[in-house]
Write a structure and sequence with these properties.
four-stranded antiparallel sheet; globular; Leucine-rich Repeat Variant; 14 strands; alpha+beta
Length: about 400
């Protein structure tokens, strides 16, 4: 209320850039919108210090080394051949500052590395989200029915965070008219770089942003603005608190973490199960284990996250409307996922992150997970798929059948 009252009066010095008062008003709105952390960073990489200042060069080298896999959108360049994501002001010349808002999606549900029921798969924690709210009147009855499952509407963090960012943006524009753009994993920007510059946390050895209080269960949204930073000294960067720990690197099944803070995305299970089209390299399949969409292993083993699960400080932000946990997606039975036809897939995943990956790729991943389970009860389903018309799924099923056979002989 106090922040809203202040907005009725002009804020001094807003036309020259970010004032402490303006920052306070916008920060208050971000908290009201449900964000856990808030920070502002300069869009000029020369204002950063330490590792943050070298992130632009690292990104370009990462692309050159082929570690982006088939994610062509990361490789886009301007007319001069400069990578758009290598420097924000290449893509958005008027950018002067970045608002970074972090949403904590941590929850007390089991971790992927804990004992799970036999035959269970794993869906990345961020994709469990749903809402008990009513569908909007603008949605057709068919879409409402498709999105609703067991009393929940499937949600996607991209949409949920964008809506909250728009509230923060409106507050900023009401106080200090300027140019803005909101992004949630969709813009020409390396969000983690600016999160580190804005004081949200440090970049961990698993390449995730880590916060001392909340760990790495953070979804990032950014607002690019034309407001310059008034301070001229480099922003203070959060100290790296990973120390000598290498648990994330040691735990990565596919050796995607090739060095501290260096990931070969083409080997990452999250990339393989979500972004990779067509057949998955047989060399990576066994290591994929039971993961069918995304992977949380490098975060689950991180001491900054495990202490929350051990009861010392359980995050609570993820229970807000729109980001509630759909319990059916925690350790989902592989057979349940395999049995989904297009209508059932749509009913459970329309409006969720899994929608973009689609049923075909999900079933390809399920087939590999079934093979890794070693359980003969999955053979009937796998043989059905192996005889089907989807060549990618058929090949994955054949591999899984052979894997189960090998496991049976070994036992």
């Amino acid at each position: 209320m106090e922040a809203e009252l202040r907005l009725r009066e002009p804020i001094a010095s807003i036309h020259s850039g970010w004032s402490p008062e303006l920052e306070g008003v916008v920060r208050t709105k971000a908290v009201e919108a449900g964000f856990s952390l808030f920070g502002i960073a300069s869009a000029d990489s020369s204002s950063a210090s330490g590792d943050a200042a070298r992130e632009d060069d690292r990104f370009a080298l990462w692309i050159e080394q082929g570690r982006a896999g088939e994610m062509e959108y990361l490789k886009r360049r301007d007319a001069n051949g400069t990578l758009l994501r290598s420097e924000l002001r290449v893509a958005i010349p008027w950018a002067r500052s970045i608002i970074v808002c972090a949403f904590n999606y941590g929850s007390p549900e089991p971790a992927s590395i804990e004992q799970a029921p036999a035959g269970a798969g794993w869906i990345g924690r961020y994709a469990w989200s749903g809402s008990r709210r009513e569908a909007t009147v603008s949605e057709s009855e068919e879409l409402q029915a498709a999105r609703q499952s067991e009393g929940f509407l499937a949600t996607d963090y991209h949409d949920e965070l964008l809506g909250r960012l728009k509230l923060v943006e409106a507050t900023l524009l009401g106080a200090a008219p300027c140019q803005t753009r909101c992004y949630v994993d969709t813009g020409p920007i390396v969000e983690r770089e600016f999160a580190a510059r804005a004081g949200i946390g440090w970049i961990g050895k698993n390449t995730c942003v880590l916060n001392q209080e909340l760990g790495s269960w953070l979804l990032l949204g950014v607002i690019v603005t034309s407001l310059p930073m008034l301070r001229t000294d480099p922003l203070e960067i959060v100290p790296d608190r990973c120390g000598s720990c290498t648990r994330c690197i040691d735990a990565c099944p596919t050796d995607a973490l090739v060095a501290p803070r260096q990931m070969d995305a083409s080997r990452c299970i999250a990339y393989l199960t979500i972004e990779k089209k067509g057949a998955i390299d047989p060399e990576c399949r066994e290591a994929m284990g039971r993961q069918v969409f995304g992977c949380d292993i490098c975060q689950d083993v991180c001491p900054w996250n495990t202490r929350h699960r051990n009861g010392k400080r359980l995050p609570s932000q993820a229970v807000i409307s729109g980001m509630e946990v759909r319990q059916e997606l925690v350790n989902p039975p592989l057979e349940w996922l395999a049995a989904m036809d297009s209508r059932e897939f749509k009913r459970w995943f329309k409006g969720s992150p899994l929608e973009r990956t689609g049923k075909k790729r999900l079933h390809r991943n399920v087939a590999i997970a079934m093979g890794n389970s070693g359980q003969p009860e999955f053979l009937a389903r796998l043989r059905e798929w192996a005889a089907g018309e989807d060549l990618v799924l058929a090949e994955a099923a054949e591999w899984a059948i052979g894997r189960i056979g090998s496991a049976s002989i070994g036992s």
